[in-house]
Amino acid sequence: MFSRILIATRGEIALRIIRACKELGIETVVVYSEADRDSIYRRFADETICIGPSSGAESYLNIPSIIAAAEIADVEAIHPGYGFLSEMSHFAEVCQSSNIGFVGPSPKAMELMGDKSRARKLAEDCGVPIVAGSDGKVETEEDAVQIAHEIGFPVMIKASAGGGGRGMRVARNDISLRHAFNVARAEAEAAFDDGTVYVEKLITEARHVEMQILGDHFGNIIALGERDCSLQRRHQKLIEESPCPSITKEVREHLSKAAVGIATAAGYYGAGTVEFLVDKDQNFFFIEMNCRIQVEHPVTEMVTGIDIIKEQLRIASGHKLRIRQEDVEVRGVAIECRINAEDPKNNFKPSPGKVATYFEPGGPGVRVDSHLYSGYVVPSAYDSLVAKLIVHRGNRREAVACMKRALEEYVIEGIQTTIPLYLEIFGHSAFLSGKVDTNFIDTEFSD
């Protein structure tokens, strides 16, 4: 097991990794930007190193600064968390060439699965259904229009690199397709320094269901059950739950086998997530694979009792998986709400600023992953996620009731958050019955 690692991320996930390391007896070094000088997780790390100004490009995305910090701190490995450098194969290669461990998959697997068009081809070769679309990247508007006519509108333009809903646009006719094609390319170029896009058939009335996997360096790969991530706004996840309330046991088994098969074909190790769309007829289609720890990993941890961060660290240290597929058992229902510093009543405008009052909910079945505290100033330079509220109860009805109670208890004053929106969602009849799809929030809460 590693004895000392560097954490190259920020926010709640930095604190989450520190907690796992403390329980494993691993010393932690946290890098931070000037904007995060007052972050609470700095207090709990064994050492902290400032790596630059508030701009992500000059701090958390600055590979030379992070490698220099790792060498100065004499760490054995780097945990990238999620976001920033977590899915950049080049960073994993730099770590490798610097004789620093990387808590994640191999650069080769990251490069393969990070290119969505190549990942689609791999899934197809594994016999996993994929959504109809282009064979690879699409170079011109004319090519995009031709493909759309072949597979039929509506279609989705998707960035080959990155994620988080960026570089994705829906088109329902030739005119909107030409506009969407150029907007998606420009957005992808700005966000990921890669403007490559591909075209895919838009599956309507679908659920977004993802399968968590773990793999070691010895070819052992297991699935830890699925998460339903259908509650999204503009392709960005807001609410996740496990298990999915609508799929059958047969579909669940097929998704598990498909995820393990794809990860095996990619030579994957570490924690990863294979994402699918499931249509109203229970047909499923591969979308992509995320080669990192997911924001919503606590949902799986709650229903399985498996600490995924600890398993990441064990795997990266060279240990074999301690868990067999037959050992994985999903108990009860877990739900997560991403608490964002945004104003839902003002087109989700970011709401950075000083937290005047902060009080976390508690009680049986409630977990909060957050780095907030009263007096903390939420910076404007980064993603708006400030907390994750997770509940775990014996069944879905109890989990929904627990979440409503916890949301009502959660006090965050001084900034706007998405808590009021979630209280509305958890009172909506369609959500309560589990009859939602990926368009639910955009259609039911468009105001």
Structure description:
The mean pLDDT is 95. The chain has 447 residues and is an alpha+beta fold. Strands 13-12-9-10-11-14-21-19 form an eight-stranded antiparallel sheet. 34% of the residues lie in helices and 26% in strands. Strand 9 and strand 10 (221-233) form a beta hairpin. The relative contact order is 0.12. It folds into three domains: 4-103, Rossmann fold; 132-201, ATP-grasp fold, A domain (Dna Ligase, domain 1), CATH 3.30.1490; 207-444, 2-Layer Sandwich (D-amino Acid Aminotransferase, Chain A, domain 1). The chain is globular, with a radius of gyration of 21 Å. The chain has 15 helices and 22 strands.
Terminus-to-terminus distance: 51 Å
Chain-averaged pLDDT: 95
CATH-defined fold name of the largest domain = D-amino Acid Aminotransferase, Chain A, domain 1
Assembly category? single chain
The CATH architecture term of the largest domain is 2-Layer Sandwich
Shape: globular
Count every beta strand, where a strand is a DSSP E run of 2 or more residues: 22
Helix content: 25-40%
Sequence of strands across the biggest β-sheet? 13-12-9-10-11-14-21-19
Derived structural class? alpha+beta
Query: Describe the biggest sheet?
Result: 8 strands, antiparallel
CATH superfamily heading of the largest domain:
ATP-grasp fold, B domain
Number of continuous helical runs: 15
Indicate the radius of gyration in whole angstroms.
Answer: 21 Å
List unreliable stretches of 5+ residues: none
Number of domains: 3
Strand proportion, as a percent range, falls in: 25-35%
The CATH first-level class of the largest domain comes to Alpha Beta
